[in-house]
Amino acid sequence: MFRYEQKYLINWQQYRELRQVLNVMAVHDRYAGENGEYMIRSLYFDDMYRRAYHEKQDGIYQRKKYRVRVYGCSDHVIHLECKHKEGAYIYKESCSLTRTEYEELLSGEPMFLLKKENQMAKEFCVDFRTKLLKPDVIVDYEREPFVFDAGTVRITFDKHVRAVSVGNSIFSADAPSLHVLPEDSLILEIKFTGYLPERIQQIFKVRNLNQCSASKFCLCADKIREPVTGM
Q1: CA–CA dist 207, 146 (Å, integer)
Q2: Lowest CB count within 10 Å: 21, 108, 144, 164, which one?
Q3: CA distances from 12 to 18, 158, 173, 179, 229 (A)
Q4: What is the tens place of the pLDDT at every residue in 178-219?
Q5: With b meaning 16 or more CB within 10 Å and e meaning fewer, what string describes 143-171?
Q6: Cβ(61)–Cβ(86) under 8 Å?
Q7: Inter-residue contact 57 to 78 (CB < 8 Å)
């Protein structure tokens, strides 16, 4: 099911104000740790023409991108995901991988995916072979998630967004990273199915927040390709 997505680049003062309100109106989702957040690491794939990157930058209406996502650099949960985008609407498909399957995929051998019942896994295998997909960038951040209205509304704060080179293992907690946002900035995302309740709309209307594209994938891909200076 497609969900509507809104993104905002906010500062830490705005975050603290919004968090105070959301703590009263919503709840942290069940995966949040004791501090209300968890760490996400995603390895994004792209082809030799960097089609996923350029389609996002060019604002192509209908597009998709593939990634492998883990949490807290652990291999307990590994998901191969495809994020579809149609204008402001998103839809995510997911398939679980074992550590062995992930290593096989990373070595350029995706054929095991054809044996899975998951249709997205099969499509990824075909795209991997025909479009010559390869790892492009690793994206790290801490996410604080709130859910509202029986889960139909999800509001997340993505903090300390960082780029990591694909030369590092996604399971390496000490992999060197580069911050991609200004020091006083973080990303607010609002996702909902159907209609955003008026009381939630009002929280953001009164603060005059400006929507933006804020693609963590593109920001990190740009950062990791910045020329090294001062050598």
Answers
A1: 19
A2: 108
A3: 10, 11, 25, 16, 29
A4: 999 999 999 999 999 988 888 888 888 878 888 888 899 999
A5: bbbbbbbeeebbbbbbbebbbbebeeebe
A6: yes
A7: no
